[in-house]
Amino acid sequence: MHENLTDLHLLRELEPVVEKLLNRHLSMSKDWNPHDYIPWSDGKNYYALGGQDWYPEEAKLSEVAQTAMVQNLLTEDNLPAYHREIAMNLGMDGAWGQWVNRWTAEENRHGISLRDYLVVTRACDPVELEELRVEQMTRGFSPGQNQQGDLFAESLFDSVIYVTFQELATRVSHRNTGKACNETVADQLLARISADENLHMIFYRDVSEAGFEIAPDQAMHSLHRVLRNFKMPGFTVPEFRRKAVVIAVGGVYDPRIHLDDVVMPVLKKWRIFEREDFTGEAARMRDDLGKLVEELEEACEKFEVSKQRRLEREARQAEKAAEKKKSFAASTAS
Hints:
Layout: H1 7-28, H2 63-77, H3 79-90, H4 94-120, H5 126-139, H6 156-181, H7 184-214, H8 216-228, H9 240-249, H10 255-269, H11 280-333
Helix pairs in contact: 1-4, 1-7, 2-4, 2-5, 2-6, 2-9, 3-4, 4-7, 6-7, 6-8, 6-10, 7-8, 8-11, 10-11
GO biological process, one term: fatty acid biosynthetic process
Subunit structure: Homodimer.
Keywords: Coiled coil, Fatty acid biosynthesis, Fatty acid metabolism, Iron, Lipid biosynthesis, Lipid metabolism, Metal-binding, Oxidoreductase
């Protein structure tokens, strides 16, 4: 058993596994064309070409669906930063490099198709969307940031373990966004994107699993660091907190989904709480992850209480607005 291996040694040890998983991925993945999932017949020119610029009444998606889809797109927009990070940590040689380029090519379809859908259907303000894209990409991204924004040491294990959870979270978010859109084409598009993300997650999950076999203590240090400091890559999007609340209350991605559909399935697949090959500090970190799960469970319960209060408050506000509108209509009629 090898412990405290350098990233270079880990890359070499894991390369046969990566090559095998890359070939499996290529056999399972299904290429698709972004243009096939865009309702082009719904489109029309904007002002610069003699048409009409966007106005709010054209947006047909609910606030939850629109917020989630735009958030998903802005997250995908940072692909150049993700490619840079993953290339720096995984390298561009051999099977690792082939995977990095293949992954980037597949991910690029997501931003293309989401933007085309939103702009063609006029589901959001395209000018604001472009301004947000520039802002988001200018901010860049690094997965090695904790809740205070401080950098923690990155390693190969940090990268593949982080992306395992991130890809699964993104898969869930895209799928639930599609359902929230309540529109057939959007649902089909986001289901297609979600399928891509699922295969990406499986690749990283299984590379990480192989890493746990090679250097369990080293992998546990990274797993603990990642989960204790986990943030979705879209946390750099302007007004992220407000948007996250809208998305959570709308049931697209909330604390319960994060725990039950993202964190726990991966921990169970890796048998984190069943393994007996963690030693010393790594064993203590595994125990701390048990405490983290309890903390996440408590967060789920607190969120449900606050969510219910918010929904009740919004219902009262809507009722008052309706009464005010009815009263105004009655006074106007008289």
